[in-house]
Amino acid sequence: MNRIRALKYITLAAFAIIVVRLFFIQIIEHDKWLAKADEQHTLLETITAERGEIYMMDGEEPVAVVLNQAVYQVIIDPAVTPKDQIKDALEKHAKEYLTADLDEVYKTEGLRYYIVAKNVPYTNAQKIAEEGIDNVWLKEGNRRVYPEGEMGSTILGFVNSDGLGQYGVEGSLNNILTGKDGLLKSISDVNNVALSIGKDNIKIPAEDGKDIVLSIDRGLERGVEEVLAGKINSTAATNAAALVMNPKTGEVVAMTALPGYNPGDYGNVKDASTYINQITEVPYEPASIFKNFVFSAAINEGKMTADTTYLNTPSIEIDGNTIWNAEQRAKLNNQTITMRDALYWSLNVGSIQALKFLGDNPNEITAAGRERLYDYYYNKFRFGHATGIELIEQEGFIWEPHAEIYGLNAAYANMTFGQNLSATMIQTATAFSSVVNGGVWRTPSVVKGTLEKDGSIKPLENHEKTEDQILTAETSATMRSLLVNNRSYKARAGIDKAGYDVGGKSGTAQVIVDGAYDESMSNLVGSYIGFVAPSGQMPEYVIMVKMWGEGKALSGGEAQLLFDDLSNYVINYLKIKPGGV
């Protein structure tokens, strides 16, 4: 009897627990369990946004140079997908696109979803589908296609296997190109079949990425790369870089560094440094090219003119360091010469003299001179800053005028001829453009904007551009005259033909090896920067080139020959009409 009574009480207690639990589930926790039920009968699928394409200019028309191609992922459920069948199908139709070892996949317990192949072309995917293998899914996506091969790789960058833009505009404008994925949510039945009708069906459409139009001229870009390749083949240089910029607008119409790579086969490179944009991401010492900027500063401040004179000595000692002129001639040594001649002969003592003039004392470097030079270098010409171009940049380095270092005056003396500092090619070309374009510093650009559906080009949003008058028009005109004068005994390749003004300045930089400048001169970087203009008119284009190689001695003179070849090519390709004839 006691056992029956005990069993009765136990049964009642169990029943009471069940009733209470049901009350909590059905009343108190109703929403929670309803949501769990919905989860088991809800299908969620990402709608992948299509990545924006990239265009270059062909005359006035944008032409696609980066495209999307439909490709597929092969997805299996290892718990139910027949291993032998899918393995055989992948071997026959997608062997080069496999991303997993099937034997290892099938050894892993609990896997119900696995991507075994990526970037499978449409025809290959169709052949897999025709095999009729159960529980195999083909998910459509896009693969980047670069039909121009290596052309423009410096600017374009690439998209990696995870769909992320790397380097170039693919990397710097990845957010604009990527867009936003959408979402498809539908309620399914017990067999996991989507129901087409129901208030809970949701579709958030994908927002495709924007198409980007570059200011790069496709034909000019290809021609510049061919000229650079020819120069590498005919000189000791293993590397060369060049850019062509319109100083009136700041637009870059060609930009390249060789050797390049094929963005569509980006893994096939010997050195990952090949991906880096040498023009925007690699600060270096441009050497005597910087004499343009200290001369501009001193003239603009009214501290000297082109005809101001000084006593030119073969060398000068500053802070215990002896700085020599590379040019040693009897008609120059210990002679009173003009600043025009100092720039013409690229005399280091002459550029240091300009710094002295800036400091109001022709006999020594002063704090005032350092402060004024820093103001021009850092604040006006913007060395040590990112320029704002739509690419990844490095800032470079400029010594502050009161830096607590030994030999600060010697450091500033070296800065007048472009050593003991670092700047990128894009910074240097932008600053030089302001020297010759009437004195206006303009934010450089490689992007015209986004290509709209109606064919118009819309400027990038939230991308501000600066125009700042940093030199007077008179200073700029004086500098153009000095730069044209520079070439009067150095003209090459018939570029100084009737109807054109061509001016420029070379630079031969020592390279730091093991923490010190290589005094053997076996490592030198050659640079040249100049402009092309119809006679008597404002410059149409600024061109900068750089040549280098590990253990190679490349001079500014060799870089000038490359500049001359490019200048001739630019004049002919862009049909720049001569002036004054």
Task: Characterise the protein shown here.
Residues 37-42 and 189-198 have low confidence and may be disordered. This protein is an alpha+beta fold. Strands 2, 3, 4, 5, 12, 20 and 21 form a 7-stranded mixed β-sheet that branches. A 5-stranded antiparallel β-sheet has the order 14-13-27-26-23, with helices on both faces. Strands 1-9-10 form a 3-stranded antiparallel β-sheet. The protein contains 17 helices and 27 strands.
Gyration radius from CA atoms, angstroms: 33 Å
Low-confidence stretches: 37-42, 189-198
Our count of helices gives 17
What is the number of beta strands? 27
Biggest sheet: strands, sense, closure? 7 strands, mixed
SS-based structural class? alpha+beta
Average pLDDT: 88
What helical percentage do the residues reach?
25-40%
Shape: elongated
> DSSP strand (E) fraction?
25-35%
Distance from N terminus to C terminus (CA atoms, Å) equals 129 Å
